[in-house]
Design a protein that fits this description.
Layout lengths: L2 E3 L4 E3 L2 H32 L4 H26 L1 H11 L7 H7 L11 H12 L3 H4 L2 E2 L5 E2 L3 E7 L4 E2 L2 E2 L5 E7 L3 H17 L1 H4 L6 H15 L2 H15 L8 H6 L22
Helix pairs in contact: 1-2, 1-7, 2-3, 2-4, 3-4, 7-9
């Protein structure tokens, strides 16, 4: 995607043209979905039917709409994927049919290719995947809109090259290449669409306010260094035994906190790798 084939080679389009094509794609599909709901609502209001029949037809419409939104998010990814994930966690503003479709995107997004993962690891650590890890599972545990997580093991640790413990198992969070810039552009385009008076006035909730909220949350999610700092702070608090006269004894007796929180690995945390 992003090139024009001529039978022998692929010509990469300039980024402004790629953005324009992507924006047109979104506007066309979003407008079609919006107009289909408007026309359906109009037909429903004009025709006299029982309440049960109307609810059944709305359920069918929402089932179709949820499938359309799911496919739009999968095709365009970027902020569209993140927005769909956010909507799947909001049954207070979304019909259950939408939630059922979009909830599949929470940890089952299309995964990155191995070459993309290799590029991120080398860019962030200056090492290949094989140099940085003793083993690395190519199949991600989970894949979301901003990053995906892989099982891996670190190389043995020890003195003078003699390992004294097993390769430590770790989870490696890899940020999608270009995800932050793409989401920023997508958000600007989506904001234009939902700012249209005919769209904004048709919804029971203010989409611009919600977009502002989601934008703030996303900025935090792209900061893996801040995430590691918060994760380590929580782990340090939870590892302390509860207060009491035998607190020191409980610490010495291999106290286990009620909730296990992973800790970051020193030297292996960057803005795009955790």
């Amino acid at each position: 995607m992003g090139g024009i084939g001529n039978g022998r080679r692929e010509v990469q389009l300039p980024q402004p043209l790629l953005d324009a094509r992507r924006n047109v794609h979104f506007f066309a599909r979003a407008s079609f979905l919006f107009l289909s709901y408007k026309s359906f609502a109009l037909r429903t209001d004009l025709l006299v039917r029982s309440r049960e029949a109307v609810e059944k037809e709305w359920a069918i419409q929402h089932e179709w709409g949820g499938a359309q939104l799911y496919q739009l998010a999968v095709d365009l990814q970027g902020f569209h994927l993140k927005g769909a994930q956010w909507l799947s966690a909001r049954p207070d503003i979304c019909p259950p049919e939408w939630v059922a479709h979009l909830s599949r995107l929470q940890d089952q997004c299309p995964p990155l290719d191995r070459s993309d993962v290799e590029d991120v690891v080398r860019s962030e650590l200056g090492l290949s995947v094989d140099e940085a890890f003793a083993s690395f599972d190519d199949t991600p545990i989970g894949s979301a809109s901003i990053a995906q997580v892989h099982r891996a093991r670190l190389h043995p640790e020890g003195m003078w090259g003699l390992p004294w413990r097993r390769c430590r198992p770790v989870a490696v969070k890899v940020q999608r290449p270009g995800a932050e810039a793409r989401m920023t552009r997508d958000l600007r385009n989506i904001r234009r669409f939902f700012s249209l008076p005919v769209v904004r006035s048709s919804l029971a909730w203010d989409p611009v306010v919600i977009l502002d909220q989601v934008d703030g949350e996303i900025q935090e999610e792209f900061n893996f260094v801040g995430e590691a700092r918060a994760m380590d702070a929580i782990a340090n608090v939870l590892r302390r035994p509860p207060p009491g006269p035998l607190r020191w004894l409980r610490r010495a007796a291999f106290y286990r906190p009620p909730v296990l929180v992973p800790r970051s690995v020193t030297g292996m945390v960057t803005k795009r790798l955790l």
